Here is the input.
Amino acid sequence: MSIAIGIVYIFTPRKPADIVIDSSYVLPHLKDGDIILRKGDAAWSVIFGDVSLTDKRFSHLGIVRIYDGYLSIINSVGYLANRERGVEEVTLDNFLQPAKNIGVFRFKYADGSLISDNAVKYIGRPFDWSFDITDDSRIYCTELLHAVLESTAPEYRLTTLFVDGINKEIIPLDSISASDWFDEIFYIETDSNSKEKEK
Here is the structure.
């Protein structure tokens, strides 16, 4: 199945989020190797969320790393203005900063420590602006999990979707959130009254 998308970039300074999901709500649900999904309100978030066919709650993912008592999130981020960044390790608070929705998913068929250990190997790789899942020298957000699963559990491959606008197969976020290979552990969103609600 293919999907055509048009991308319009608006370069405006981003205001800090008015509402931030408190990490104390999310932290008790996290284990090493969990996949944490989020959706913000930036134009980029809307575009990636809309690519998913069945579950548009999310637009970005990170992999939870708990090592030596320290929790971090490994994720790949790109900025349109200067095309810098890539795979990095950030705090949970940093990852939650732009989030309006957060979901925690757990892969059923591999130990979480194997997933996070493999994710560490990609830290420092540049963001993949060509969205090419056949080359892991550069990594975009869902491509990170794709690469990690290839080395951790190669028999499980994330669903891809052909996008006409870039003429590439990409990995939409619902390849995780709607997959039977992952359990949804936790979901929280902010509502219009500036409060958090857990589902």
